[in-house]
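Each record in this resource describes a single protein on a pair of labelled lines. An example record follows, reproduced without changes.
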Amino acid sequence: MNGVPGRDDSWHRLHPLSPVVRSGRGVLAVLAAVGISSSSAVDGGSRWFDLVLPAAVGIAAVVGWLVTRWRLDGVTLRIESGLIRRDSRQLPIARIQAVDLVRPFLARALGLAELRVRLAGSSDADGRLAYLTEQAALELRARLLAAHHGMDPATPEPAEQIAVVVPTGRLIGSVMLSASGSAGGLVLAGIVLAFVSPAGLAAVAGTLLWWVISCVSLVWRRVSEQYGFTVAQSPDGIRIRRGLLGTVAETIPVPRVQAVRMIEPLLWRRVGWCRLEMDVAGSPGRDSADGGARMRKVLLPVGGRPQARFLLATVIGDAALELTRPPGRARWKAPLSYHFLAAGHDDTLAVSVTGRVRKVTTWVPLEKAQSVRYVQGPLQRRLRLASVHLDAAGHVRAEFRERPQDQAGLLVGELAALSREARRHQDAPAGYHPTRAAEPVTVPRQAASVASPVNAAQSEA
C-alpha cells in the first residue's frame, strides 16, 4: 500500500516506482560511462563489468524499497529502513516544524513526490518518505499538520495568501546582470575577438569553450532552481515554491528566522532590484529538487524594493530605525566604503549597512543574537576606532563598523543587555504561528538628517 493509511497502526510501503526515481540518476551516469567505454577497444571482461554495475545499482534501490516502511499512529510518525543496519526513526508530531514536498524531474514525470519532515531544533530533514504519489503526499502532509495543531484531519488546511511571484523575465535579467552573466558576456566578447583573428581562435578555442559551458551551466542552474518562485503567507509560516524541472515546496516558520539580509549589487541598483536572504534556525542542508546540498536562505531571488519591504515586514516586523554613520576620521580606515557605512538599533532590532559595489543591509532581531564582539585592529587603535559585531546563527551579523572606541565599548554592554531582555520577553506560542502583519516599512524622516549620503537607499531599505 502506498496511499494515506486508513488505520493509524498499520505499516505502509513507499510507491513501487520509488527505486526507479532513487536510482535513476546513478543508472544514467553508469550507462553513460558504459557508452563511452564501449566506443573504445576494451576486452570482454571490462564490458561485462560495465553491464553488471547498472544492475547492481538498480538491485540496491529495490532492496532499499523492500526494507523501508512507515506508519502514523496518531502521535508519532515512524519510519524504518536499512537491511544490515536497521534505522528506526520516531518523529513526534508535537515537535514538527514543517513538512515539505520535493519533486525531482523524474519523480514529477511519474507523478511522485518526496515528503520531508523537519522537527524543532534539527539541522536537517529528520524524516524522508521518498517516494509517495503526489496526492498521497499532500494528504499525509495535511494529516501531519492537522495533528500537530490539534485540528480535525478532515478540516481543510487554512488558505494561503500569495505575497510575491517573481516573473521569469526579471529572473533571467537578474542572472544576466549578475557576476555569472557578466562573465558570460566577457567570454562571448573573447569569442568575437578570436574569430577576427583565426590564429588567435585556434590558440584559445579550448579555453573559450570551457568558459562558455561553465557560464551557461551556471546561468541555467540559477534560472531552473528559482523558476516560478512564489512566496505565500500561511498560518504556519512562509511558504515558498520554486523549480523548473524539479520543484520544491517548503514552509519556513517565522519564529525560526534568525536574520534577514538585503543584497543590492551595483548593476541591480540601476533598475531598483534587490535580493532577500534569511538565516533560518535548523535549516536543512539539502533542499534542492535534485538533492544537492545547499542552505535554505533565499526569501526573494530578485524583486523591487516595495516587494522586499513587504516581505521584510512579514518576517521581521517594523524595521524603521534611525541609522548613524562613523566619525569623519573613519575615512582613513575605510576610504572607499565610508560613505556606505551606517548602523543603528532599538530595543528589539539591530540594522547595519555595508558594501560599496555589493551593498548589504542586515537586520538581526536582538532575541536571536548569539554573541556581541568588540573588534579593534592596529589602525583602528591609532584612530581611536573600533567595530562591534552582533552575531546571529550561521555566518550573518550586524556590524557597527568604525565607531569611536568609547562608544563601541558602551555599545557592547548595551546590546548584550537588550538581547537578554528581548529573549526574556520572547513569546513561544504553541500551535499555529500567525505571521506578523505585513505593513509597508518606512524610515523616519529624522533618519535623513543623520545619514544624508544614503538617504535614498535607506528610505528604500
Notes: The domain at 18-148 is CATH 2.30.29 (PH-domain like). Confidence is low (pLDDT under 50) at residues 283-294, 428-461. The first strand starts at residue 69 and ends at 72. The chain has 13 helices and 19 strands.
